[in-house]
Amino acid sequence: MQVRHGIAVSPGVAIGPAFVLGVEDFRIPKDSVSIDAVNVEVERLHAALEKVAQEISANEALAAKHLGKEYASIFGAHLQFVRDPKLIEQIERRIREDHESPEHASSQVLRRYAKELQHLGDQYLAERAADIFDLERSLLRHLLGEQREELSHLTTEVIVLAYNLTPSETAGLNRKFVQGFATEKGGSTSHTAILAGALEIPAIVGVGDFLTDISGGETVILDGNEGRLIIGPDEKTLEKYRLIKERFQSKSQALRKLGVGQAITTDGVSIEVCGNIEFPEEAIQCKERGADGIGLYRTEFLYLGAMGERSEEDHYQAYRKVIDTFGERPVTIRTLDVGADKIPGAMKHVYNEVSNPELGLRSIRVSLEYLELFKTQLRAILRAAVFGNARVMFPLISSIGEFRQARMVFRDVCEDLEEQKIEHNPHIPVGMMVEVPSAAIMAEEFAHEVDFFSIGTNDLIQYTLAADRSDPMVAKYYNGSDPSVLFLVRRVLFAARDAKLPVAVCGQMSSNPMFVPLLLGMGLRNLSVTPQSVPIIKQLVRNISITECEELAQKCYQLDLARDIETFLRGELKRFLPDRDLP
Ligand code: PEP
Ligand code: MG
């Protein structure tokens, strides 16, 4: 049994067979082989090995012809490896004596070899490990033949383990069969992490190297509460986690009830708790959990996984669905925030050469570059806005000129719709996300231009502290408690207060109970959080007074270390939110 740790990004516990993606892309059955079938299975192994050998020989001949003998010799080494009697004997033994399937036995043996090579401390040999994974892949392809199960065609429940999952791959996960996922890469507020929460799939990211330690089909426990991945658990651990899983499920059900009713502090201040969504289908779940509206609808997920462009009608239908669900309650629709890691299939070629996508053509910059795309979306928003209380919001605004430019396009679209006599609502509030430090610095000036602010702490933290939000290697630098981040958030809240402008925080910081008293103490009255956290955040608000929050904020301003601020906030949270209320 091995225990690995990562960053917990979506709560819950999953127990099941591993589906190792990226290395084999299909699932390896661990089924045991009955005694009568052992000979047949061993024959199947030999047949598959022979086919792999034939493939390698064909490649060797091809390489010799086109590239020369020295390149062909690489394949010669591969051939020797698949014909190595010692290797074959080890696999055979696992089939005959341990009754493992040939797929599982060969995967285990080959991976052990690969790992040994990786740990010999020699760069050349470590790189040869990749060749062994390649061989494993070929062998499995032949062994599994038609039966191989791909991620897109799952028929049974699995836990997906991958080097990394892009937001579009995550968005495409089949919730019925994918019980959880863990990735070697990823950070706490990466879009993949946010999506895991939206899909309500227990997940951990940033685990570091672990894929070579596991074969498909092996049982794993994924603990999305504590950020733990347990490979090959013993019976006692399995039993313990089955209980934790049950308890978590019943607690989650009980927690939902806390969403009912308003969130009013003990000194009578009403706090609006809205929800963040990525898919229109989430609107209903958000409402059921007690959200006062939608504070952030990330519309780019309409594009992810889509092959081509989305029509005005596609946009319109999606927005209507959300607006209709919330009636008179506010629905804040953010225009496309593609680029960086959220790249729609159809635009991949544009980004292939980009060395630093987080600082590249992203978000509002894409909309202003591809005006037709932008106008299509704005038309749909303005049309859907006739049916409820919609607001439009531009992401990643970094200068006043940029906001004016976007607003101008908005006005042009209103005029077009007017001329075409198409029903629309030109009076909807037009706001911006404050998620680039330049925008926070200029908040007072922006306040004269916009109808509302929404602070995107996920990006604000990464750009303020120069720490990629999805890179686990710099996770320790990515810190919402840093005084510089708090300074900027406060600055925006003060600018909004002075200009009597609505302001919300829609970054993950407001979904984290630890930060909520501080944000309220700084003057925030509107939070937009993940659907799952709506009930707990509402309950927290009901347990505190604004006076206490203001005192707490004053104490934080005195501290100059992120670590001290975090320790202080954690301690305070225990006072406001007893353990029994925590998920
Ligand atoms: C943010 O940056 O805080 C935000 C809410 O936007 P996203 O996470 O989609 O970048
Ligand atoms: Mg953002």
From TrEMBL:
The keyword Cytoplasm applies. One of its GO terms (cellular component) is cytoplasm. Mg(2+) binds at residues 435, 459. PROSITE patterns: PEP_ENZYMES_2 (PS00742), PEP_ENZYMES_PHOS_SITE (PS00370). PANTHER family: PHOSPHOENOLPYRUVATE-PROTEIN PHOSPHOTRANSFERASE. The lineage of its organism: Bacteria, Pseudomonadati, Planctomycetota, Planctomycetia, Planctomycetales. One of its GO terms (biological process) is phosphoenolpyruvate-dependent sugar phosphotransferase system. It comes from Thalassoglobus neptunius. General (non sugar-specific) component of the phosphoenolpyruvate-dependent sugar phosphotransferase system (sugar PTS). This major carbohydrate active-transport system catalyzes the phosphorylation of incoming sugar substrates concomitantly with their translocation across the cell membrane. Enzyme I transfers the phosphoryl group from phosphoenolpyruvate (PEP) to the phosphoryl carrier protein (HPr). Phosphoenolpyruvate binds at residues 298, 334, 458-459, 469. Residues 256-544 form the PEP-utilising enzyme C-terminal domain. NCBIfam families: PTS_I_fam. GO terms for molecular function: kinase activity; metal ion binding; phosphoenolpyruvate-protein phosphotransferase activity. Residues 156-227 form the PEP-utilising enzyme mobile domain. Keywords: Cytoplasm, Kinase, Magnesium, Metal-binding, Phosphotransferase system, Pyruvate, Sugar transport, Transferase, Transport. This is Phosphoenolpyruvate-protein phosphotransferase. It is an enzyme of class 2 (transferase). It catalyses: L-histidyl-[protein] + phosphoenolpyruvate = N(pros)-phospho-L-histidyl-[protein] + pyruvate. Its EC number is 2.7.3.9. Residues 5-128 form the Phosphotransferase system enzyme I N-terminal domain.
